[in-house]
Amino acid sequence: MPPFRLAHISDPHLPPPKGSLGLGDLVSKRALSAMAWRRKGGQHDKAILDALVADIGARAPDHIVITGDLTNFSTVQEIAAAQTWLSSLRPLGQVTVSPGNHDALVGPDETQRFAPWGAWLADDETLAFPHVRVRRHVAIINLCSAVPTAPWLATGRLGEDQLARLARLLPDLAARGLFRVVMLHHPPIPGVVSARKALEDGEALRKILAADGAELVLHGHAHEAALGALPGPSGLVPVLGVPSASARHGGRHPPARWHEIEISQDPDDRQVWVTARGPSALTGAFETLGRYRLTAV
After folding, report:
1. Does residue 20 sit within a domain?
2. What's the number of domains the chain is made of?
3. N or C: which end of the chain has fewer CB within 10 A?
4. Domain presence at residue 129
């Protein structure tokens, strides 16, 4: 049987629909985000995102995971526009979204805030995070680190309940022989982002992974390509991050990129290959930037 192919993208920062911000937003954290968007929004290009999505479509992976920041101000209009965009990607059940800090800038609790995205969060929308989607021999474990924060902060938090559920899930999924992919917005490795952007309970997550393991962790948030590892019960757990899916060449961060992750089925000879795809600096056409094998635990 062919390998399971997973496409990982992050931080598309879809352009805000006209009229997304109202007068009431001038006295909320959204005002700070609006100023940042005016300063940095030019670094994101919808045309590049469209080209990236087309490139993914041409390579026809089995599933797409998106690790957050579809929106910029988490307004109702943006959430709805992101829902329309998600609907255009693939049939339901073939795309999974882990919300980012910009998707939870202000507003109601996560149940209400992300309700329009329910079909892209989980197969069973009634369950709280973490959500688990089993596709062939792969278990996609969807965590949510997106919480409202004070001005100037972009930290994330999983919370005790979500972490406790994760600790119960991981051993069960391992016993079923599934390849466990954990996805979340904030990097779980210290130092990948500054303290004001970090995962507040990252140490608790790292302890769970050290005890119960996972085969791969995917994140966004840093707008950088990142390759690292965390201790697992029998080896290292690979951790991968990708740049923003809409980033231009010549901006503050690296240009857009997505990862195609191939996961073989044989648990006795597990092979995981990563192909990085991004736009050529000369032509803008998407091309293979590199390919390497991960050592799975």
Report:
1. no
2. 1
3. N
4. yes
123-132 in b/e form (b: 16+ CB < 10 A) is eeeeeebbbb
pLDDT tens profile 237-276: 999 999 999 999 877 889 999 999 999 998 778 899 999 9
Residue 139: strand, helix, or coil: strand
Structure tokens belonging to residue 24: 């009431």
Phi, psi for 160 (deg, rounded to 5): -65, -40
First-to-final CA distance of the chain: 21
State how far Cα 254 lies from the chain centre: 17
Residue recorded with tokens 């393991």: 213
Task: Quick: pLDDT tens for 29-68.
Answer: 555 555 555 556 568 999 999 999 999 999 999 999 999 9
> How much of the chain is helix, strand and coil, in % rounded to 5?
30, 25, 45
Look at residue 80 and give its three-state secondary structure. helix
Contact (CB, 8 A) for 33 and 226:
no
Residue 154 CA to residue 194 CA, distance in Å, equals 10
Q: What residue type is 143 in one-letter code?
A: L
Residue 215's domain is classified under what CATH number?
Answer: 3.60.21.10
Distance between CA 152 and CA 271 in Å, rounded? Answer: 41
* Amino acid of residue 183: M
pTM listed for this prediction: 0.92
